[in-house]
């Protein structure tokens, strides 16, 4: 009895210690006291509950959950349901947390709060919205502002990820969290300018709120503003202001925020800006997206977008195997998603395997008809890149839901015209017009009533008529023109086209139709003559005419004046010029282009020794032969030879004569002139 009394007294003291430490927030010391109590009584339910709470407060969620699972007989779900669900939630076991909450016999306010958080993490936004509305309606405490913030976060998520138009909740945006969530909802709707204003307001409220606390530094404020600035940069990126966005993104990264989710999103957005440029920076940024815990901070669509960009980056960095591996993994996770297949096709195209890429896309289109249109557009683009325009047209025409669209009709007609396949182009027009004919009719009380042609329908008919007229298909254009004129009998332009077409086919019909043309008396040409004369074109013509008139007058005045003739200077004659000798007719040609030019010997100088036996001179043997008389025809000396200048007086100077053995005609050499080549007398 005395031992029991002593144990009870010790336990009472320990409980007092636990209570005091709990009030002071010293849960580590409280845990020590609780453990001592459990040594006295290991199945004490209150002590076990206190131990779980102390472990949760100290962040030891795994250990706390272990205590709960070890003492399931004592700690039943009715007693410890919230603590168990909370531990599972914090350990990212979201599905288990949901089961724990749903299995609880009594749904307390704490469980309802946690239930809302769990639904948000599971991205069940409709159920989450209903849970928070119920909480706000049935709760009155100091946490009402936090609940409204969570409610606005759910609405923002619906707008962003599910493209749901958010309803006006009537929340007063008194805090920066509410302003931020409202901005996110506006971004989801595409209202970027309004969203930017909301974010600027959120930044202002955040600064005001945090500056009131003297313990908060400027660095703490910037760290808190990082998520707001990140969203601002995202808006800039969507608006095409990529340089501003990139600068702001890098500023946030330099702050080194602790939120790994924020860093991952910013790094991903920088990669999307870099695209196939600056891949070294992109490879560094990818590491931020692989940080521990990122998968628990981001939504499924955010994580999927990051994985897509990793695959694209692998393709841009020529990591073909890595690209195929990532895209195949993405396709297995989302078989109906389009992007993984497009990435695989792009990689095959980079490897010059276009046929294989087209086959891959065709298989996906057959398996997923809902995405067939986008896939076939890509296939057509690949065919055009290969130069197979006709095959590309066949693929485009197989997209039934786009056959009648003006953009598709225009593309097909342009491509067929490029291939000079006018019949197929006209067939495209005909099919599109027939589609509008069939879908224009409506049934009213059992009878078929045709509405007036829609603007798109009439535009197609007009384009078809113009195309046929342009390519000489006037007979085929007549039916289209008649249809247009029937819709608008006052359209003079269409009537004129119709008459022009009939004039070559049926002149009598053209005459009949010409009676419908308005007479010249009824045409009121409201022309402002003064405005027309003062227009730019008329002013230019008038100035030009005036200038021409002035020039003519000057010419007429100058005809009576006798112009003074300038004296021509006499040209300089060479020093050895002899007027009795006929000048060489080729003197104006460079020496190299003259008919008697024999070329220059390398290293030749004025008095160099000629070729031959040793001791021989450059003088010809005929000049040294004394038996030769003066009556013999003189041998033409080489230019520059000293012996030739001292010959008899009846010899013609070398610059005024042709060589004796020169042929009468010779083709001019097609060589470039050298710098020193000049013609001489």
TrEMBL record:
TPR repeat ranges per the UniProt record: 226-259
Domain Signal recognition particle SRP72 subunit RNA-binding: 543-599
Basic and acidic residues compositional bias, start-end: 575-596
A Pfam match: SRP72
The keyword Endoplasmic reticulum is annotated on this UniProt entry: yes
Low complexity bias locations: 610-649
Domain of life: Eukaryota
Compositional bias annotation for Basic residues: 563-573, 665-681
Coiled coil: 94-149
Protein location: Cytoplasm; Endoplasmic reticulum
Signal peptide: none
PANTHER family: SIGNAL RECOGNITION PARTICLE 72 (PTHR14094), SIGNAL RECOGNITION PARTICLE SUBUNIT SRP72 (PTHR14094:SF9)
Name of the molecule in the record: Signal recognition particle subunit SRP72
